[in-house]
C-alpha cells in the first residue's frame, strides 16, 4: 500500500469552508435543526431517543436503522446493510476489502478524489472520462475496453459529483450486467440519489440489479444531514458483507448511538425530506440560470440532471484557478476549481468549477459574486 496523497478538496475546505462569507460550493442539500428532525420521529423512535444510553453499538449498525435502510431497496434485507461513519469510511473499507496487489480497478473521472486515490493505493487503476462535450456522457464501450482479466471493481457515481450527470437507466442496467458477466463488483456511489428533478431519470440502485454490486449511500447529501456522519453499504453478497464488518473493526468499530437513532428517523422520513430538498433546488435553479445568463461571456452553465452540485465552464482569460482564488479572497465567495477534481489517470477539464445549488437562499452569495464581477477591470 502506498501513502495516500493529500485530499485536495478537504485541504482547500480547511482553509476556506468556515471562513468564506458565502459557501457557494456546498455539496449537501439544506440541513435541518435537531428540533425539526425530531419532529419527524414516530413514537418508537422518539422513545428510543429519549431513553438512549451511551454504550457501544453493533458493528453492523443499529438493527432498526438497517431495517429502515433496507426498505429503500427492492431486493435487500436488513442483513444486507452495514453502516459506517459516513460515506468516506465505507468507500475506504470497501476498496481495502475488494482490492489488493495484482488486482485492477476502473473508475470514472472527474470524481470524488477518494474514488480514485484509495484504489490507486492498493492496485493498478484505469479511468474512463465522462465527455464534457457530450453533456458528460459515459461511453460504455470505453468501460469495456478498460476492463482487464484481473479487474475486480468498476466504481461509478450517479448523480455524479461534481458534474450532476445522470446516465440513462438502460445504460446503468447494462453496466451492472456487464460487470456480472465478468465477475466484477460494481461499486455504485448513490449519495445524491433522490434529488433528480425528473423522477424518470432516477436510476435503479446497483444492489437491486446485482447480488455482487455494492450500493453506497449516506445521510449527508440528499438528506442534507452531514453532521450525523452515518453512511452505509447495501450488498446482497453476505460473505462480502461479513468481510466489510471485520475490516470495520480496524476503523470506527461502531457508529455513534445518537447518530444512528437520528439517522433512523431521517431514513424513515426520507420521502418528506427529499421532497423538501427537491423543492429548494427547483426554487434555486432559476436564480442560477439568471446569474449565468447575465455573465454569458464568462460562463457556460447547465443545471444538473440530479443532485445539488453542477460543474460550469469558466471562459475568462485568467483561468479558473486564479479566478476562484481571487473570488474567495476579494469577495468571500467560495467555489471549487477544476484542480480539486483532476484525475491522475486521464484528462479532465481544467476550466470548470463546482457550484452548489441545494442550500436555502443563494441570493446573498450570487449578489456578492455579481457585484465582484461587475467591478472587475
From TrEMBL:
The keyword Transferase applies. Residues 39-360 form the Aminotransferase class I/classII large domain. The keyword Repressor does not apply. Keywords: Aminotransferase, Transferase. InterPro entries: Aminotransferase_I/II_large, PyrdxlP-dep_Trfase, PyrdxlP-dep_Trfase_major, PyrdxlP-dep_Trfase_small. One of its GO terms (molecular function) is transaminase activity. It comes from the Bacteria. PANTHER family: AMINOTRANSFERASE FUNCTION, HYPOTHETICAL (EUROFUNG) (PTHR43510). This is Aminotransferase. It comes from Wenjunlia tyrosinilytica.
